Task: structure prediction
Amino acid sequence: QVQLVESGGGLVQAGASLRLSCAASGGPVSTYPVGWFRQAPGKDRDFVAAINWHGRITQYSISVKGRFTISRDNAKNTVHLHMNSLKPEDTGNYYCAAVMKPYASGTYALTSSYDTWGQGTQVTVSS
Result:
């Protein structure tokens, strides 16, 4: 069974950059769409970005479009989220997740579409 582990979070100042990684184990994630979500304390888990299985289709929330980039390295079974120009409102626990539908061509923005989730990595942006 595929398991996902996020890494790369931390405490940064506004305007800084971070790169989050989502590493899969127990099986390949290379044939599945993957998404990143974030959750601030007391709030819902919100969509951030998604990428389809071959990496040629991406989708972003309005709040991060132009600042964040999602990418995948299927040879390394890893998906990244590159975050630039971070703002305090980007603070939250960031989760990666996979839709366990092999070769699904689209991207998915709803949490209910995802079957496998990581434990999250905390990102804190100070002003």
Summary: The CA atoms of residues 71 and 80 lie 5 Å apart. The first strand starts at residue 3 and ends at 7.
